[in-house]
Design brief:
- There is one protein chain.
- This protein has helices spanning 20-30, 48-58, 65-73, 102-120, 136-149, 223-233, 259-273, 286-300, 305-308, 310-318, 322-340, and strands spanning 8-15, 41-46, 85-87, 125-130, 155-161, 180-182, 190-192, 198-202, 239-242, 247-250, 253-256, 350-352, 361-363, 370-372.
- By secondary structure, it is α/β, with parallel strands linked by helices.
- The chain has two domains: 3-229, Rossmann fold (3-Layer(aba) Sandwich), CATH 3.40.50.10770; 236-372, Arc Repressor Mutant, subunit A (Orthogonal Bundle).
Length: 376
């Protein structure tokens, strides 16, 4: 999936006191990158001091290094304004100048998480995140947030600059022609900026987005909440069913199903417990139908269900055909995925087993992973 093919291309950087990482990364992506990734917009997450430095060195008329870079290499318009410089705030709401307190650390984690969640919510966007700037904790949180919310088109990197240009406050990018700057040492040695080498180290990351339930993909959930859910989804699969309440526990996540979805899941769970083989809808007979209806009647707790409940009457009359079988599998998966996410839900839904024409369906769980008991 080529990030450069997306109409909205975002460079997202955490930034401390070195605004150079923005132009260095932009140069590496859009001038020498293979394939080139030319952002349509740039967003910074930074402290109050970092924002001031970015404004004065990158966006000013002079020296205006961002504008110079675009002119030097003929780059197209890129949205990078004061509005796309996002200040990190302390726990009490004041703009941060530095990150010193534990509460401030938690606050920036939530802010970075919120911005990554927002930018990755747009299906037309590709996000390239750079962890080169700011304090190490800022880079860590940005990388972790991209792991939680990143999609196949999103990337993570760290920019590398050759010596003696690395950490030189006068260097912003390799110029196309000779440009003299001065070194940081006591002798202020003159250097030619066009001699510098800049490269991008791509950082692979594990994408966990599909394992998050829908509420965590929307605005509001904190960094720690999202991490807890991701951690729960990484636990070994186990299924506990409470017949009296229709609550189920999938791993460490507890949720309530509709009665018919609970009965459908319970039917297949009991088949695993007694060692029955996967089931194809063409091979469902009277015994299988009654086993499912017994689960449903138990959940309903209605002594008249046999004679009056329309679903029970219709299943006894029409059986369990392909349309009903597929509908129940689909609706169970939909109810579970709202809480478990698209990846973890596969451990607890009825899945086709094998590739044969009449391959049956079953839960992909072992008997020791399934329990029926009361969930307190």
């Amino acid at each position: 999936m080529n990030p450069a093919a997306y109409p909205r291309r975002i460079l997202l950087c955490v930034l401390g006191l070195s605004p150079q990482i923005v132009t260095e990364t932009l140069y590496a992506l859009s001038v020498i990158g293979e394939p080139r990734f030319v952002p349509t917009e740039i967003h910074l997450l930074t402290t109050a001091e970092g924002a001031q430095r970015a404004r004065l060195t990158l966006l000013s008329d002079e020296p205006g290094w961002f504008h110079r870079l675009r002119r030097d290499y003929g780059l197209p318009e890129i949205r990078f304004t004061l509005d796309t410089i996002h200040l990190l705030h302390a726990a009490d709401g004041r703009p941060l100048n530095d990150i010193r307190e534990l509460a401030d650390n938690e606050a920036i984690a939530d802010s970075i998480t919120a911005k990554v969640r927002e930018l990755t919510a747009d299906p037309e966007s590709a996000v390239h995140a750079s962890i080169a700037g700011g304090r190490k904790t800022m880079g860590f949180y940005l990388g972790y947030a991209l792991s939680l919310f990143g999609r196949p088109q999103d990337r993570l990197s760290h920019v590398l600059v050759s010596s003696p240009f690395e950490s030189n406050s006068n260097f912003f990018y390799p110029t196309p022609v000779e440009r003299v700057i001065f070194g940081n040492g006591p002798d202020q040695r003159p250097l030619d900026a066009s001699d510098a080498t800049v490269m991008l180290a791509d950082i692979p990351f594990v994408r966990l987005r599909d394992g998050l339930h829908e509420t965590l993909l929307r605005e509001g959930a904190s960094f720690s909440e999202v991490v807890r859910q991701a951690q729960r989804n990484l636990a070994a699969p186990s299924l506990t069913l409470d017949v009296a309440s229709c609550w189920v526990q999938c791993g460490e996540t507890v949720l309530r199903l509709t009665p018919i979805s609970f009965a459908w899941l319970a039917w297949f769970a009991r088949r695993v417990l007694v060692g029955l083989p996967p089931l194809h809808w063409k091979r469902i007979g009277v015994a299988e139908i009654e086993a499912f209806l017994d689960e449903y009647k138990t959940v309903l707790n209605d002594p008249l269900a046999d004679d009056e409940h329309p679903m029970i009457v219709s299943r006894r009359k029409d059986g369990i055909d392909k349309a009903f079988f597929d509908e129940r599998n689909s609706k169970l998966k939909r109810e579970l995925s709202r809480v478990l996410g698209q990846r973890s839900v596969l451990d607890y839904t009825v899945q086709r087993q094998g590739t044969a024409k009449l391959a049956g369906y079953a839960l992909d769980l072992k008997p020791e992973q399934i329990r029926f008991e009361t969930l307190d």
